[in-house]
């Protein structure tokens, strides 16, 4: 396949579009995670993510397939029509790669090796997602972003407000144990 169609659009503008889409995808992912995945429409797939994983995949992985098909559609549309759509597909794909590294790899340890950040932003991201899983079920969770994590003290305060009787210890969440 030839990528000559990309020469009809300034590359710097395309890369700016792709970068903007990466940022917009975090806002989109937050909204989809909070109101679709944790809502009545999407919980059927996402519930598997809040339970101990028994195999290599979980039903929740179907969301990755949906977003991959969206990116493929955008790449195709951009190759056949408006080139900017190709760059939107690129931004969507880049976000997917970052999601895979941060969420599936770092937080859920779905890699053959284990990395637990001890400081900095990656530790905050890791802790925020553990707090997200400290709630049983779909209601009352915190931290719905995948690459942005609010300060942990803010998330803990929200959990205390929504769950005065307490939640699971984030260090003892079955679906976050090594391999889960």
Task: Give a quick account of the main beta sheet: strands, pairing sense, barrel closure.
Answer: none
Can you write the helix and strand succession as a string?
Answer: HHHHHH
Mean pLDDT: 91
Low-confidence stretches: none
- For the terminal residues, how far apart are their CA atoms? 39 Å
Number of strands: 0
SS summary, helix count: 6
How many discrete structural domains? 2
Helix content range: 55-70%
Category from helices, strands and their pairing: mainly alpha
> What portion of residues belong to β-strands?
under 5%
| Rg estimate, integer Å | 18 Å
Outline: elongated
Descriptive overview:
With 180 residues, the chain is an all-alpha fold. It has 2 domains: 12-107, no CATH class; 120-172, no CATH class. It has helices at residues 11-37, 43-46, 62-80, 83-107, 120-132, 152-162. It is elongated and about 60 Å long.
Q: What topology emerges from the helices and strands here?
A:
Blueprint: H1 11-37, H2 43-46, H3 62-80, H4 83-107, H5 120-132, H6 152-162
